[in-house]
Design goal:
It holds the Pfam family COXG. Helix content is 36%, strand content 40%. With 194 residues, it is an alpha+beta fold. The chain is globular, with a radius of gyration of 20 Å.
Amino acid sequence: MEMNQTQRLPVPKQVAWEALNDTALLKQCIPGCESIEPDGDNAYLLALTAAIGPVKARFKGRMALQDIQAPDSYTIQFDGQGGAAGFGKGSAHVRLDAEGEETLLSYTVNAQVGGKIAQIGSRLVDAAARKMADSFFTRFTEALGGGAQEAAAQEGEGSGQDKNQDGSQDSSQGGGQSDEPKRKRSWTAWISKS
């Protein structure tokens, strides 16, 4: 499995770096995380519960930080066992880039799973991994001072599209105007085309 993602954080780069190295904060943000304890230099023992498709298991594993280029990037090597559910191992390269008062966090994960988890199928495993990553970044962004609505607003600005309250997207750039005139214009444009 390979997964790439970029996330905008509402804090300067140094603050983001410190937060990524704060085990108490990470424990709060990682879905299902029960504990993160030091295990030598730049290494940690983790315990977490995760549900992947119909398989729910408690995983214990080790995470080590390597290739540390503070405050720009590091690589996380991980290896976890979930008993009869199977195992997961791999690496994640995490990079921070400053963008004014905000930080762009990019990561690439390469992972292998085995046991019952592998039998579930790659689509379910990928979907569960993406859901966990999304949940982590929602919590992480909120913990750094950006609320969920603020993060959603930044996400909408980045894509050039606004989301209405009903979840539909509006690609016009009229910002700040009510939905009524926008609908009228598009309806008028549609009539004039016919």
